[in-house]
Amino acid sequence: MPKPTHHTVTFERSLPSNDRRNIRKRLAIVLAIFGSVTLFICLVAPLIGSTSINLLQALNPSISFSNNVDAQIFFVARLPRTLAAALVGSALATAGVVLQALLRNPLATPFTLGVSAGASLGAMLAVTFRLPIVLAGVPAVPLASFAGALAAVGTVYVLASLRHRGLSTNILLLAGVTLNSLFSALILFVQYLADFSESFRTVRWLMGNLDVTSYRPIQIAAFLIFLAFVMYSRLPRALNLLAMGPESAAIRGINIATTQRVAFLSASLATGAAVSLGGPIGFIGIVAPHLVRLLVGSDHRLVLPASALFGAAFLVSCDVVARVVMAPLELPVGIVTALLGGPFFLWLLFKRSGRNLVP
User: Fold this and answer.
1) What does the alpha-carbon distance between residue 65 and residue 99 come to, in Å, rounded to a whole number?
2) Burial class (CB in 10 A: 0-12, 13-18, 19+), 223
3) Where are the alpha helices (DSSP H) in the chain?
4) Phi and psi (nearest 5°) for 86?
5) How much is the pLDDT for 42?
6) Per DSSP, what are the bridge partners of residue 138?
7) At residue 358, does pLDDT exceed 60?
8) Residues in a beta bridge with 135
């Protein structure tokens, strides 16, 4: 692989100044449109549910919280779910974008590399064996889930970097698929050992569940996802060039090994935090990136922020549907995302048959 020289110009500097201004203008438009829609959905979502509430009553400081039913519904039952859905949707959507570019595979998802299966196994162990662990106000299930995700990330990383300067994408995929199968078998074994009530909790968690009533897990997940987003800030231009092939990217000054590591670790961190908070909610990581590309193009400087906003809005909307479609019963949100995302992705495959899903 050719090594970049000191005279190699970066991708952005090689662009004409008019093109750079055009990208900035398009980015501002994308952020304004997607951001406005996402903000509107997040503001309206806590007001929708099987029980009507009065927002002014909920925010009335003259009424004590213990006597204010509207405030209890708004701040305890609905607002945490909305915040959790926004975080999880944003994390899964952006992780899907990064992994699809890293692996150069349009079918890659945040769950391809075994992170979700490891997180799920950790959560199953915490539920089945009733681990009495609480750390910084975070209960055992999210902690064990994130620990399982870290174990999966570490295993895949070691295998993919062994005897390679960077990360072998082929080994990443093979190790991820193998870990998914192994952890899925272990999850079934743990469920076999569980009693009826524990099995019910584990099955519901595996469907994807945003039944969050405490702000502490949301704060911890938000911090981890923020760290992943900081790492993402180094990636868009490199991912644009990486899509052209490692050799072309290296010639243009991209450090392939560093880019691969940052992409893998940031996407895995975001996925682990999201799954520990909301469970393995499927389809967002594959549907959101492709739909955003149809709307804004394939430039990752636009796709990454747009996917973050779209993923948040999409999952918050799905959570509203899950809460009201069979009220007073609540569906696991993972069922809603599958029912909406599955047909859409089949339609997308049909419309783009014979063409690459990633423009």
Assistant:
1) 45
2) exposed
3) 11-14, 17-44, 55-58, 69-72, 79-103, 115-128, 140-161, 169-193, 196-206, 216-232, 236-242, 246-251, 256-278, 284-296, 300-324, 333-351
4) -65, -45
5) 95
6) 135
7) no
8) 138
Q: Rounded to whole angstroms, what are the CA distances from 307 to 109, 169, 190, 285, 341?
A: 13, 23, 35, 9, 15
CA dihedral (37, 334, 277, 88) positive or negative: negative
- Band (pLDDT 50/70/90 cuts) for residue 7 is very low
Q: What is the mean pLDDT of residues 85-100?
A: 95
Q: How many residues does the chain have?
A: 359
Q: Which residue has better confidence, 38 or 102? A: 38
- For residues 107 and 289, what is the distance between their CA atoms, to the nearest angstrom? 11
CB 296 within 8 A of CB 25: no
d(CA 194, CA 148): 19
Asked whether 285 and 275 are in contact (CB, 8 A), the reply is no
Dihedral sign from CA coordinates of 216, 218, 220, 222: negative
| pTM as predicted | 0.87
Give the chain's mean pLDDT: 85
For residue 302, is pLDDT > 90?
Answer: yes
Q: Band of the pLDDT at 55, cuts 50, 70, 90?
A: confident
**Which of 273, 302, 322 lies closest to 33, judged by CA?**
302
